[in-house]
Amino acid sequence: MTARVGVITFPGTLDDRDTQRAVRVAGLEPVPLWHRDKDLKQVDAVVLPGGFSYGDYLRAGAISRFSPVMETVIEQAKGGMPVLGICNGFQVLTESHLLPGAMLRNNHLHFICREQKLRVENAGTAWTSDYEAGQEISIPLKNIDGRYVADERTLDELEAEGRVAFRYLDGNPNGSLRDIAGITNAAGNVVGLMPHPEHAVEPLVGTGRTDGLGFFTSLLKKLVNA
């Protein structure tokens, strides 16, 4: 039986369809989830896709954090369910305290959209095991509130525990502290990042590269071997 991956849609979500396709390309079954429903429909993992949920009012992800579906996601994530937050989804994960830190406006105050080179720092999570530590990949980046910040103690803990999952290369695009592009929780089942792997899974669309496919094939292998 194919593993099922829930993809949540909030008001203002943009990339849910792209994420569903990426899940399908990797050999998994995408399951659309609506933000008002607490029922996760017995999925094996969840992706919070990119966009501007609730128009980014108050703060990016601040309102979505209180959507009914997040109550179940938080509970299941704490129980070990794999959860991936992409861009706005990463913002929701920090607002939900599933991941530490916060996302602020880019230091140059402009929306940025470009292909971004990253270095994989942690290849031991549910979403990164198909990569190698130190591997360089290139996937799209598009945000205006993408600057990752945290206090020095939290940053030091992330570094010491190997919880920085991805780091920006060839220039920091938004002022994120320590060039952090993505992080993981201590258990390795919850990962958040600002760049968009779902836009780099097929050679004919997006960047023309498949560097982002490893996120979803990593999950497939984890669920199949569970």
Please give the count of helices: 5
Classify the fold: give the CATH topology: Rossmann fold
Strand content: 25-35%
Strands ordered across the widest β-sheet: 2-1-3-4-11-10-9-6-7
Q: What is the CATH-assigned architecture?
A: 3-Layer(aba) Sandwich
Uncertain runs with pLDDT below 50, 5 residues or more?
A: none
Q: What is the fourth-level CATH superfamily? A: Class I glutamine amidotransferase (GATase) domain
| Radius of gyration based on Cα positions | 16 Å
Fraction in helix: 10-25%
- Give the tally of structural domains: 1
Broad structural category: alpha/beta
Distance between the termini: 13 Å
Coarse morphology? globular
- Secondary-structure element series: EHEEHEHEEEEHEEEH
Biggest sheet overview: 9 strands, mixed
Q: Quick check: average pLDDT?
A: 94
CATH class membership:
Alpha Beta
Characteristics:
single chain, 226 residues, alpha/beta, Rossmann fold, nine-stranded mixed beta sheet, two-stranded antiparallel ribbon, 23% helix, globular
Structural notes for this entry:
The protein is α/β, with parallel strands linked by helices. The mean pLDDT is 94. The protein contains 5 helices and 11 strands. The chain has helices at residues 16-25, 68-78, 88-95, 152-160, 213-225, and strands at 4-9, 29-34, 45-48, 83-86, 102-104, 112-120, 136-143, 147-149, 164-168, 180-184, 190-193. The relative contact order is 0.18. It has one domain (4-225): Rossmann fold (3-Layer(aba) Sandwich). The strands form 2 sheets. A 9-stranded mixed β-sheet has the order 2-1-3-4-11-10-9-6-7, with helices on both faces. Strands 5-8 form a two-stranded antiparallel ribbon.
